[in-house]
Amino acid sequence: MKLLDIGEVSERTGIPPSTLRYYDELGLIDSVGRHGLRRQFGPEAIWQLSLILLGKKAGFSLDEIGAVFGKDAATELPRPRLQARADEIDQQIHDLAVLRDAIRHVAACPAPSHMECPRFRKLLRVAGRRTRPKG
After folding, report:
1. How far is 27 from 59, CA to CA, in rounded Å?
2. 31 strand-pairing partners
3. pTM of this structure
4. Cβ neighbours of residue 10 under 8 Å, at least 6 residues apart?
5. Which residues face 39 on adjacent strands?
6. Do 17 and 37 touch, CB atoms closer than 8 A?
7. What is the DSSP secondary-structure string of 5-73?
8. pLDDT of 59-109, one tens digit each?
9. Which CATH code fits 4-69?
10. Taking every annotated instance into account, which residue ranges of this chain make up the domain HTH merR-type (predicted)?
11. Cα–Cα–Cα angle for 16, 25, 51, nearest 5°?
């Protein structure tokens, strides 16, 4: 197994060495040794870092990511929590699509004012339904 120096892992992933050391301290990745003072990682660290980055993009905290993928991870995946987060992402995609459509429409609308445009007002109503507080 070819070991990767912390600098090489940083270069391959774009993650600063300080963050790699932090993730190692949290148990999200494991250094397998040192070459002088520099930490060494196995090639699996690249995959582990990809999972961490995906988890962060999905809105999970580092604690949540560690609970699922860290060295002390539970043996059972929290499938309901993962499904709920996927549902939240679906809603964000929908909301962003509505926002995108509104912006594109305003940019191309021939009405003298976007507030006079019936289509834009309809888009606002649709967006407003999603942002009202529940209760």
Report:
1. 19
2. 41
3. 0.68
4. 16, 17, 20
5. 34
6. no
7. EHHHHHHHH---HHHHHHHHHHTSS-EEEEETTEEEE-THHHHHHHHHHHHHHTT--HHHHHHHHSTT-
8. 889 988 888 776 666 667 778 888 999 999 999 999 899 889 888 888 888
9. 1.10.1660.10
10. 3-71
11. 60
Pair type for strands 31-35 and 38-41: antiparallel
The secondary element (H helix, E strand) that includes residue 4 is: strand 4-5
Other C-beta atoms lying within 10 Å of the C-beta of residue 94: 12
For residue 129, the Cα-to-chain-centroid distance in whole angstroms is: 26
Q: How many CA atoms lie within 13 A of 122 on its CB side?
A: 5
- Domain locations in the chain as residue ranges: 4-69, 79-131
Tell me the C-alpha to C-alpha distance, in Å, between residue 104 and each of 101, 107, 114, 127.
5, 5, 11, 15
pLDDT digits (tens, 9 = 90+) for 7-44: 999 999 999 999 999 999 998 999 998 888 889 999 99
Task: Compute CA distances 91 → 8, 95, 96, 107, 131, whole Å.
Answer: 38, 6, 9, 24, 12
How many angstroms separate the first and last alpha carbons of the chain? 57
